[in-house]
Amino acid sequence: MRALWTASALLAIGACWYVQHHFERRIARAQTSVESLYAMTSANERTVREAGRLRAARDAAEADLKRFGAGASLPSATAAVLEALERQARAHRATVAAVAPAAVTTSIRTPGLLAVPVTLRVRGQFRDLLAFLIDVSERTPLLEIRRTQLAPSGKRRTRVEPMLDAVIDAMMYRFTPRAHEGKSDASDR
User: Fold this and answer.
1) Are 130 and 150 in contact (CB under 8 A)?
2) 23 Cβ neighbours under 8 A, 6+ residues apart
3) Residue-wise pLDDT tens digits, 92-114
4) What does each C-alpha distance from 62 to 26, 45, 65, 107 come to in angstroms?
5) What is the domain partition of the chain in residue ranges?
6) Would you identify the CATH topology of the domain 69-182?
7) Which of 115, 175, 185 is nearest to 144 (CA)?
8) DSSP string for residues in 77-138
9) Whole-model pTM above 0.70?
């Protein structure tokens, strides 16, 4: 009888050990799978977010090409850039006082691109001008800011911060049609 009790106790202990060991292994494998799936899901979410940002950048580039590209006339492309500058200035509580393009004879031509030097005069408070310059340099296509000079304007919007006049030297770029490039290349030779 004692042997029977000992055998049944050993059998129960062995069965408990087997069940516990077997299921612990399965639980560990399941936990590893869950962690792996979580990592894949996180990576996929990052990929989807990045794809959304890339789609938005592509759409913005296509819209910019339609507005400023070779298909748009020089006056309409210039007007579109000026409208974008005016909109950005208003958004940052600044005012575009003047835009003075240089003579076309001083423009720089490279195949497919026309670069025209432009001088902008913008008035606002320092923080507003800084935000405007950052916005323009990041969001206005085909406009490169080369140099900025600040000077007090003599007017004040508030008692604390004076108004400043910013003179911004920039380069405005314009795409030229491919057919025109071929003709100008042939005539240059």
Assistant:
1) no
2) none
3) 999 998 888 765 555 566 677 77
4) 53, 26, 5, 25
5) 69-182
6) Alpha-Beta Plaits (3.30.70)
7) 115
8) HHHHHHHHHHHHHHHTT-EEEEEEEPPGGG-EEETTEEEEEEEEEEEE-HHHHHHHHHHHHH
9) no
